[in-house]
Amino acid sequence: MAEAVLDVRDLAVEIDGRNVVDGVSLEVGRSEVVALVGESGCGKSMIAFAVMGLLPAVARVDRGQILLGGEDLVQIGEEAMRQVRGDRLAMIFQEPVSSLNPLMKVGEQVAESLVVHRAVTRQEAWGKAVEMLRKVGIPEPERRAGQLPAELSGGMCQRVMIASALISRPRLLIADEPTTALDVTIQAQILNLMKELRGFGDTAILIITHDMGVVADIADRVCVMYGGRIVEAAGVGETFARPSHPYTRLLLGTIPKLTGERKHLLRSIEGTVPDIAEWPSGCRFRTRCPLADEVCAETPPFLPIPGDPGHHSACWHLDKVGEIA
Amino acid sequence: MTTHSEPRPAPLLAVEDLRVHFPVRGGWLGAQRGIVKAVDGFSLTISAGETVALVGESGCGKSTAGNAILGLAEPSGGRIVYEGIDLAGAAPRRRAELRRQMQVIFQDPVSALNPKLTIGQSVAEPLVVAGVPANERRRRVDELLDLVGLKASQKDRYPNELSGGQRQRVVIARALALSPKLLVCDEPVSALDVSIRSQILNLLMRLQQEFGLAYLFISHDLSVVRHIADRVVVMYLGVIVEEGEAETVFSSPAHPYTEALLAAIPLPDPKEQRRRKAIVLEGELPSPLDPPAGCRFVTRCPIREAGCAAVRPSLVPTPQGSRAACLVRFPAQ
User: Fold this and answer.
1) Phi first, then psi: what are they for A292, rounded to 5°?
2) Residues of chain A whose C-beta is under 8 A from some C-beta in B?
3) Which of A53, A171, A222, B49 yields a CA-CA distance of 20 to 30 A from B72?
4) Which range of residues forms the domain containing residue A136?
């Protein structure tokens, strides 16, 4: 991979003395789409907020680096961070309606980052915003630009969010569950749009999701998280064809399919997604893992999978993962 | 019903031409501005032990239909017949008895449970209402918790001490307390984590086998529906556009909306997913205040023809064995 746009190294985020993100390293290359996958409380959104410099007040970066084009965002301070956000770095959220300013015309919201970060007049910016709205598939963009978010549907609002995120041609777009709140036919439209727009200004995408279908549709590479750590990272094909961590393997097995056998008992993962206060020492998945034994009380290293460059898994029992039926 | 199918036993539940219309107020002194026909001519039967799934996108009327069946929304027309008895015409006491045989599981187990009651108290509540004596109640609560995979020792816990999956188990235990014959499951696994969903689906399938429960399974998640349902009913903007055996509807969808809906779900398999032909529907759901006069899908339909905007299609048998409402594909009506 060419030089990474985003290079996160050994990131830890702390809340109340506990590391909700615990030593995460990941890279996103130019025009690449990387999916960060996991269940609620695994820390995936916290990584996004750390990268954006938008951690909630109770959280702080405990250690590690967040390099955007070589510059460490952890160190640059809030003033410099404001220059980066909305310009080189943009984010879209799950709830498009509540993420937009309800009192501001959508055209102005799309134009805002140009007005703030680039030396353009409001008029110029408005023209560019209308063009951007057209590009993201808003019908009659001239008229729509003058409307308020409440006059648009949820799908339309997500298009507006994408337009306002991409108008400055950021190096990296972070998309946190961008289609989770949308209906499937609208989700398909938005995923298609994101695929069309990828490479627009070479923007790289870090998409955060729990939906394996979305991952299969859009991602180039996948990082699977559990308990604040990345437990497996691989190309999207390998992730599905040769899952090499017990959690990934079991998770893929629990999803009902649109083809093949029906009505059989689905594979399930024992127990519940543990609360951070209950995360065990060593491998965090060991309390639910069928392969767990005493060695798992030590934290497993992130080991390369032989014969597949770029594929890593953090499991002491790599040789036995394939036996999980 | 279809003429070529096997004669079936009398259905547990028959819904005939159900309509649920809501007045929309606003404007000058709250004058009525219009009517939302949330459900507009909806018929359905469910036999004992059968799972019928109601699918469609938000605003299609699937939850409203479920609520009307449960008596939680007032029908504007049509009949709801349970075990041969028209609920609207039954004496209040009889109707309450019959309604007790229909229970519900909602999407969000957090708001479905009273945070100030222990889970034991929550599960016991319907038994209290039904006048079950205290010692019998205690025995039954233990039995119910065991049935849904919780320990009797957990009954003094409060909902906030449980995980989302465990709370949904409590909700299921409470729904089963009075031994219902029909469970309306409204998005029962949508709020749960992926690794927990399959546990709850497995539980629902096991309970069905054990007690011969019938399910009206309302969901937008078609892969879950395909897994669990015997029959599927597809709704769009208040009306049924297709219905049939799950196997048939999923392998050979007849209505263009069903086709598009199925094609829109990203498959959890990158090779398959990237090989698929995309049918991406244009536009969005029209306003329910002003739905198209003819086929309600006409504004987004990829195969619409001139007549579709004016003529309301009715459900007719398809060669696939399902029933669908589409003038272009099934004009013989």
Assistant:
1) -65, 140
2) 39-40, 153, 155-156, 183-189, 191-192, 210-217, 219, 236-237, 240, 250-252, 254-258, 262-263, 265-269, 272-273, 275
3) B49
4) 101-167
* Residue in B196, B198, B274 nearest the CB of A267: B198
pLDDT at A270 (0 to 100): 87
CB contact (8 A) between residue B269 and residue A240: yes
Domain range enclosing B249: 13-101+180-324
| Pairwise CA distance, residues A247 & B295, whole Å | 46
**Amino acid at position A12, single letter:** A
Q: Are residues B194 and B146 in the same domain?
A: no
Contacts of B250 in chain A (CB under 8 A): 258
pLDDT at position B211 over 70:
yes
Burial of A127 (0-12, 13-18, 19+ CB in 10 A): middle
Any domain includes B69: yes
Quote the crossing angle between the two packed helices B134-147 and B164-176, to the nearest 10°. Answer: 130
Please give the ipTM for the structure prediction: 0.86
CA distance A231 to chain B (A): 16
State whether B242 and B154 are in the same domain.
no
Tell me which chain B residues have a C-beta less than 8 angstroms from the C-beta of A236. Answer: 270
Looking at residue A196, which CATH number applies to its domain? 3.40.50.300
Residues A233 and A288 in one domain: yes
Residue B2 inside a domain? The answer is no
Residues B62 and B128 in one domain: no
Q: Do A254 and B198 touch (CB under 8 A)?
A: yes
- Give the pLDDT mean for B71-97: 94
H or E stretch covering B183: strand B182-186
User: Count of domains in chain B?
Assistant: 2
CB contact under 8 A, A255 and B266: no
Rounded Cα–Cα distance for residues A105 and A148 (Å): 5
Q: Which two tokens stand for residue B188?
A: 């029962």
- Rounded distance between C-alpha atoms, residue B121 and residue B119, angstroms: 5
Q: Do A262 and B265 touch (CB under 8 A)?
A: no
Q: Are residues A280 and A290 in the same domain?
A: yes
Last residue of a domain, one of B128, B152, B179: B179
Do residue A216 and residue B57 have CB atoms under 8 angstroms apart?
no
What is the pLDDT at residue B93?
Answer: 92
Task: Name the minimum distance, in Å, from the CA of A251 to any CA of chain B.
Answer: 6
Say yes or no: B200 and B306 in one domain.
Answer: yes
Query: Is residue B122 located within the same domain as residue B41?
Result: no
pLDDT at B3: 47
> From its phi and psi, is residue B322 left (phi > 0), alpha (psi between -120 and 50) or beta?
beta
Which pLDDT band holds residue A310 (cuts at 50, 70, 90)? very high
Residue A266 lies in a domain: yes
Contacts of residue A237 in chain B, CB cutoff 8 Å? 270-271
Q: Is pLDDT above 80 for B29?
A: no
- Same-domain pairing of B225 and B304: yes
